Every structure is written in C-alpha cells, then in structure tokens.
Amino acid sequence: MNYKRSLTVIITIFAVVAVVVAGAVWYFVAKPTKVLVTITSQPHTVEITINGESFGARKSGKTFPVETKEDSLSITASADGFADDTIVEPINGKQVGSFIGLVPQTDEAEKTLREEGDLDQQEDATEKYLRESEKLRADWPILDELPRETMTYRAYQGESEDGDHDFGIHLFLYPDNADQGREDFNRWLKSINEDPHDYEIVEEMDNGPKKAVVPPLPTRDEVEALSRDDITDPKTIKSDNLESDAAALQFASATTTWHASKDTPHSGFNRTHQLMSKSLADSITEPERPTYTPKWFEAADNDAESYSWPIDIYEGTGSNSFEVEVCWAWVSETHEPVIEGPRKYSITMGDDDGRPVVTGYEFEDPSNFVASDTDQCLSND
C-alpha cells in the first residue's frame, strides 16, 4: 500500500515538472525578441513595414525598436513616386541595420533624389566646417569671446585677408567715433589678456544706423577735477525721446548716483521710478539690511556724493535687453575723488506709450573681499 502511494506521488511530481518545463519552453519560444532597427534610405523619408506591421514614415539613419518572434526581418520601404522594395535581414543580435535605395518612377521622384544629394553634400561640408571650427577654437580661445557687440564697435570672426592667419577679427567701427571704438576694443583685449598684435585685425566702417554710444571715458585728471556741480539729480532725469539702449545707459548712471551720508545703496532705485514701468516701480522696496562697501563708509565720513558714468554697453541675451557696466567717483569738497565699480547691470527695456522704460534689472557689484580693477573705468590718455 505504501509502495503504491509512493509511486503515485513520484508520478505526480514528474507530471508537475513536465508541465512547468513545457510552460517555460512555450514562454521563451513565444516571447517576442526586441531589436533596434536602423534603416538608411534613399529617399531620406520612406514608409516602413516590417513583417507585415506598419511603422509609418521613418527618416533615414534613425533608430527605432521592433519586437518580433521571427528570426529575421522582412523590411519593405515605399514612397510616393518610387517603386517599393523589400529586403530580408537576419536577426543575429540586438541590432539590425539595412540600406534600401528605392528606384524613382516619376520626374518628381528623380528631382527629390537630386535635391537630397545636394543636401548630403551640404551636410558633409557643414560637418567638416564644425570639425575645423572646433580645432580652431581649441588653438585660439579668443574665438569663444566672439562675436562681441558694444556701442562703439562690433567684433566678429571672419576670413583672413592676408592669408598668413587662420582667421581675421573683423572690427566694425562708426565713422564719427572710430578712435574711441578702436581704443575700447584694445582695452577689452587687454582685459582678457590678449595682445592685438597676435591677430589680423580687419577694420571696416559701419555707416548704418547707430545705437547709443558710450561717451569717452574720463581721464584721471578729469575725475580729480569733478565737483558737486557736475552731479545731476536723478529725480530730474527723463527718458522721453530716447532709444532703448540710451535709456538703459541713463538708468544705470542715475541709479548709481548717491549722497553717501544720507542714502542707502538702494536709494538710487527709489529716486528713479520715472524711468521704470509702473509695475517695476511699485515693486521697489528698501532692503532691511543694506550692504555697504568700505568706500561707501569712507564717502559718508567725507559727506561725498557719487558722479556716475557708463563704460560699456552691449545687447543682452533676452529681447530688448542690455548689459551695461558703470563706474562712479565719490566727490567731496575736502578730499580727492575715490573711484568705485564697475557695477554690471542686466537691464530689460519696454515701452510706455512710446517712451522707453525699464521693466526689469539685475546687477552685480565687485566683491568686497577682492580688490576691484578700477583702471577700466578710466581712459588711458
């Protein structure tokens, strides 16, 4: 009796194992295989069908996943004006690549192939240019700084004209202040530790419409000759009849005009609401803990006021926005002027019934813990 029962148990176990094995075999046999398919085609866009399943329009060289239980892929490509073509590709791994060139049947299809051939040549030329450009930038870091556009000059990378250089820096100047533009350009090169003699500078005159021009930088003698009478009350400044860039310059100068013993660093914004949009003016609030510089405290002790001037302006990354750099000198009746800055503004301009207004701004002052280079605030003359 026990023998029969044991035999029954053994038979049952074998039956269960057989069912499990059969199920596993069925699962792995029936489970689809996932492969990545890349089809290079002419024309560049074709309708793709694989093993009877449509995969829609596919661009040449693009990779897409396909699941199949077959050991090969029957790939059919079709396009308007071309004869269909089918290629069978075996599946030997996780990726399948295939080239299909359709035969044109109409004049329009032949035209498509010719145009795409021209496009391929253009793409090859573009790739070559990008490779050469990447190498050029590695050899000449200044190219990462170009193009550069300011109110007195514009500098771009261009072709060499003498044939002895890899490239030329094309410097566009305005006829009525070419000397100032050239000086500003050379000063910028010096600020990034570049020597103009290392480059081929191709000067060209720009006779088109001009933007606001930064006035010539003051000399040290001119700054030392300043008095309180030279300082304009910011409340009296208007932006009527100005272009947006000129209004941005005006805002930068007006908001850095202070009376150190009476003001806070934020007072310049409180006195220039007339240069702002209403929403921006309404949002101006005095910080609870204003940040003062050591030179501000010195100016307050001397009852000094600030005289401000822009040193550079160029277009920002946003629409109708400008990057402005501005310096100022603390002027008192008893001490020599003390220069401070530059402050770097990002200013966004808008329009209020034909009048340019500031709709947003950000600024960055030199660190109190690092000596600032105020030499760039002055002319070298």
From TrEMBL:
| Transmembrane segments annotated in the record for this chain | 7-29
**Residue span of region Disordered:** 362-381
Enumerate the UniProt keywords alphabetically: Membrane, Transmembrane, Transmembrane helix
**Keyword Transmembrane belongs to the record:** yes
* Superkingdom, natural source: Bacteria
Show the ranges annotated as biased composition (Polar residues). 369-381
Name-wise, this protein is PEGA domain-containing protein
Origin species: Brevibacterium antiquum
Q: What is the lineage of its organism?
A: Bacteria, Bacillati, Actinomycetota, Actinomycetes, Micrococcales
